[in-house]
Each structure stands twice: as C-alpha cells, then as structure tokens.
Design a protein that fits this description.
methyltransferase; about 20% strand; Glucose Oxidase, domain 1; alpha/beta; about 220 residues; 8 helices; two-stranded parallel sheet; single chain
C-alpha cells in the first residue's frame, strides 16, 4: 500500500483554459492520446468536469481506499479510481457523494460502477463510470494506492494530471503537457473555424480535407 497525502496541482489559469476546451479537441491536440475507453461514460447526459486527478487504485470488492482518498481531497480535485473494471457492485453511492460535495471535490471518474444514480444526479455531482450496480462493497481492506500512477479506462493517470470530461467521454492531459496541449488545441480550433466558414461558402469536406485522391484510388466519381 502506498498513500501520498498530497501532490502538485496545476495552476488555476491552466485549469480554466483546459475547462474551456472540449475533451475531443484536447484528445486530438495530444496526437489522439489520453482518451479513456468507451465504457467510461457520464452517469447522466450533460455532466461535465475538469480538475486535477486524485488517483486511487483499489478493489475489486472493497472501497475503503476510496473513503480515505475523499478525506484527503482538496477542493476541485477529481477522484480517479481504478476499480479494476469490476461491474458486479457499486463502490460509490449517495453517502460518498455527500462527503465529496462537502469537501469540494469536482467529480468522480471510476473504472467500475456506482449506485444511487438518481440521488447522485439530483445532488449535481458529475460522475463518469462503467454503469450502475446496486450491490455494495466491503469497507475493511486497506489494500491499494493513493496518489500514485494508475491506469483508468485504459489510460495512464498520475496525481496532478488534468481530467476533462463531457458527454463525449473522458480525456487525461498530463500536467507537464498542459501548456503545449492548450497551444495545439487553440490552433486546431482556429483551423476548424476556418473550415466552417468555407463549408458555409459551399465547399465540401472532400475538397476541404483533400480527400479526392482516395476517391480516385477507389474509382469513385462525384
């Protein structure tokens, strides 16, 4: 068991700049990296989050380390939990949600399930997970790690990395790549804005993205 009580968080300006970007844009800006797998989805449509990752590795039958992590969290932290992809129980519910809100957490991303879904939605707490399961877990086994490097949803996450999520899914921006990612994301947004103007003027995506050679190779004539 390894428990680091604190970690280096990104500055507020970096977080706000990343919050303004979509996860899809950030994923593209990082060279199509950082996106968690398809099973990790918002518990309800419209949920969004952005903040530094407080990482937890535990489970798959006990959630004691999650309780410890919530107690260590600082306002704005996003709890990122590797629960080993286990979907036969819900290690997170309304009580942990109430605790997380009281401590100012910005959301939860878990490679596993949650329960008390409607209560969580009504509390306004963003959760990204594999789904729901009403079964509970034990709270007795202090085996696991907090604020180490984990794998969640197929993506490596270190404490202090920035997690951004919306209806499209979850992306993880390594803290030391944040500035470069923001620069590339801004350039991508500018290019896409120019694309939209050209499309409105009548160009097709075939012309805009120079796809004609592929049509020619396939013998397709428009």
């Amino acid at each position: 068991m390894t428990v680091h009580k604190d970690f280096l968080r990104p500055d507020a300006a970096t977080l706000e700049a990343l919050r303004a970007q979509s996860p899809a844009t950030l994923h593209e800006a990082m060279g199509k990296k950082g996106a968690m797998g398809h099973p990790i989805k918002p518990l309800f449509p419209g949920m969004r989050l952005c903040g530094p990752a407080l990482t937890v590795s535990c489970g798959p039958t006990d959630n004691l380390m999650i309780h410890i992590a919530v107690a260590l969290a600082k306002p704005g932290d996003i709890l990122v939990v590797d629960f080993k992809g286990m979907t036969d129980a819900g290690p997170w519910g309304d009580v942990l949600t109430a605790s997380a809100i009281a401590r100012g957490l910005g959301g939860l991303v878990i490679d596993g399930c949650v329960r008390d879904a409607v209560a969580i939605r009504d509390m306004g707490f963003p959760v990204f997970c594999r789904g729901t399961n009403m079964k509970g877990t034990n709270k007795t086994d202090a085996k696991g790690d907090i604020n180490t490097t984990i794998v969640c949803g197929g993506v490596m996450v270190s404490a202090g990395d920035i997690v951004v999520a919306d209806d499209d899914g979850v992306v993880v921006v390594p803290r030391d790549l944040a500035a470069d990612t923001l620069e590339k994301a801004a350039a991508r947004e500018a290019a896409e804005e120019a694309y939209r103007h050209k499309l409105e003027a009548g160009e097709t995506t075939i012309e805009l993205l120079n796809l004609k050679p592929y049509l020619d190779a396939a013998g397709i004539t428009l």
